Amino acid sequence: MANSRKKEPEITPQPPLSERMCVSLVPIFNHLSPEQMDEVMEVVQHKTFKKGETIYRADETSDTLYIVNRGQVKIYRLSDTGKEQLVRILTPGDFTGELALFRQSVHEAYAETLVDSAICHIHRDDLQRLLLRYPTISLKILEEFSRRLDTAEKQTTSFATEKVDTRIALYLVECVEEEGANEATIELPLSRKDLASYLGTTPETISRKLTEFEEKGLILQQGQRKMKLLDIDELLFI
Amino acid sequence: MANSRKKEPEITPQPPLSERMCVSLVPIFNHLSPEQMDEVMEVVQHKTFKKGETIYRADETSDTLYIVNRGQVKIYRLSDTGKEQLVRILTPGDFTGELALFRQSVHEAYAETLVDSAICHIHRDDLQRLLLRYPTISLKILEEFSRRLDTAEKQTTSFATEKVDTRIALYLVECVEEEGANEATIELPLSRKDLASYLGTTPETISRKLTEFEEKGLILQQGQRKMKLLDIDELLFI
DNA sequence: CGCGGGGTTGAACATTCTCAAGAACTGTGG
DNA sequence: CCACAGTTCTTGAGAATGTTCAACCCCGCG
Asked: Is the pTM here over 0.70, yes or no?
């Protein structure tokens, strides 16, 4: 028969976006008119990365804003004594590189692809020109920055004042999509090792605490990364 | 006699700045021309606070940027379980309120004066108008934000990966003004209690660790808040 | 069916906190 | 200038919390 393609091989885990689509989805650009977007697209370049490649590393000078088009990127830092901490995972539509972009300075973190990825990027000079021409973009970036700053400070406070119990519980609850309900099924996006790095603990402790939660009837583990939260209110009280 | 004022009472601990001086010193405005500064000053208001007064508190809606003119302000958060963490101390020239200023949102932290203080403030609408008229101000704020974001993430990493030893040592070194030397005398700006809150530990632990440092010959305590760092390189190695 | 990598469990150990008591400092009023 | 009261800081001992390291388990895959 004519269309006998059987089971097209899944190459990309996420549906591919056109670059324009990708860039226009980024919160900092999504309010622009089509004409303005044209202008933005003129200075956007793109590149693909294999799994595990480094996009930038600490101490490199920064002159580029990166936008994840397809794939996943992890941002991590090394502490003064050399231990790694996962700062954030970027998924399509997220951007990075901004920290060192607005002042002459070097990166303080590492960006590395977790899977094959496509990344759009904009050069510093081009971006600054856009910002001066369309001040509303700056306002959007300021908005995004202030959100991140809140998150970062909240995270710091959480590390400073909560014990591991609580941090893990809070993280589980953050993973919930639906609002309102007291139950939910979630799928952890990270391995125990990465999760431990993100939460400032060890894989062993995470295992133990999850078991503990299960014994208390707060969660129901279903395989390594899936679980059902049975009592969200109670989880927040730990 | 005519001018017989003896010993004018010292009301202000820091030398008072004119408001204009104050605002013009803030990094985000200090590049403006005198004419532009005039425009800024038109929308700046001012207010004085007694020691211990609250400037804003979490969950209040935010519509004002505050600039410290004279005095000291502490910014702190309450964790989900109600414990207080000191986020930052503002001194003259520092600003706050920005977090919730660029998106419609409420404060997530508390701002409280540590001593009698004078605060300049700018209303949200006025600020936005200024930003749209002078896009370079946005760039300055972005610069400042990116610096703070770095600091916040660094702080988070430090909490996540270092033990109290190291965090205290790093803090001591941060207090040093002069660059280069391996020795320095510093004066802690915070009480043990506040320092503990800032570093995510307890006053008792700080006492003990400082004693420990002293026994190892790394520091020499001179009164409660003053000390001499004897071997900065070694402190960073802990 | 054996291999390998994540994940789990256990036991000893290290770190830090808590609570309580005592010491040192600060500021005030005599 | 000294004594006192109120803080703030230090020290001690025991308890709680997490980490480390090693062994084991589970499961997908060749």
From this structure: yes
Tokens at B52, concatenated: 């211990």
Q: Do A200 and B109 touch (CB under 8 A)?
A: no
Dist. CA B234–CA B97, nearest whole Å: 38
Give per-residue burial for B133-142: e unless 16+ CB within 10 Å, then b: ebbbbbbbbb
Does the nearest atom of strand C lie within 7 Å of A222's Cβ?
no
Q: How far apart (Å, rounded) are the C-alpha atoms in residues A24 and A40? A: 9
Tell me the average pLDDT of chain A: 84
**In whole angstroms, what is the distance from residue B197 CA to residue B195 CA?**
5
Contact assignment for B85 to A161 by CB distance below 8 Å: yes
Give the nearest nucleotide to A163, CA to C1'.
D17
Check whether B136 has a pLDDT greater than 50: yes
Q: What is the mean pLDDT of residues B105-113?
A: 88
Hey, which bits of A72-155 come out as E strands?
Answer: 73-78, 84-90, 95-96, 110-113, 117-123
Using only the alpha carbons of chain A, give its radius of gyration. 20
> Token pair of A78, please?
């090394």
What average pLDDT score do residues A159-166 get? 92
